[in-house]
Amino acid sequence: MRFVLDNSVAMRWLFADGSEADLTYAAHVLELLAQEEGEAVVPALWPLEVGNVIVRAEAKGFIPEARSTEFLGLLEDMTIAVDSHTAAHALHDTMQLARRFRLSTYDASYLELALREGLPLATLDADLRSALTTTGGRLA
């Protein structure tokens, strides 16, 4: 199954924090990705988001660099495709979605990608889930 992967889910894999429901959902998404046909698609900003969260967590002493390195190796082994068309939609479709749903353009980029590709979206972000439902999109 192909789906769009929001950073909120991937970070649950690293930090293993949040509600029981969030952790269960993150585990479910990880299982989808582990399936033979499993593939996540992410907007072009995703690697920067992942890196930013990790660097900030290291700086605050939440995780050691060795754990970050191990986690990044795991991500690299997963089937995660970076969308090459994110920038082409950023100042039009993505901004319109951000305005309409009062999302950051970063969050709207996940919604835009899911809608453009007709893919379900894996996210733990409540505002993003609400926007997805309103647009008729599907949750992974």
Task: Give a verbal description of the structure.
The chain is α/β, with parallel strands linked by helices and 140 residues long. 64% of the residues lie in helices and 9% in strands. It has one domain (2-134): Rossmann fold (3-Layer(aba) Sandwich), CATH 3.40.50. Strands 3-2-1-4 form a four-stranded parallel β-sheet, with helices on both faces. Helix 1 crosses helix 2 (20-34) and helix 5 (86-101) packs across helix 6.
Largest sheet: 4 strands, parallel
Strand order of the largest sheet: 3-2-1-4
Name of the level-1 CATH class = Alpha Beta
Structural class: alpha/beta
> What is the CA-CA span between the terminal residues?
9 Å
Low-confidence stretches: none
Structure annotation, total helices: 7
Number of domains: 1
- Specify the overall morphology: globular
> What would you give as the CATH superfamily?
5'-nuclease
The run of helices and strands is: EHHEHHEHHEH
Q: Looking at CATH, which topology would you report?
A: Rossmann fold
Mean pLDDT: 97
Radius of gyration: 15 Å
- Which percent bin holds the helix content? 55-70%
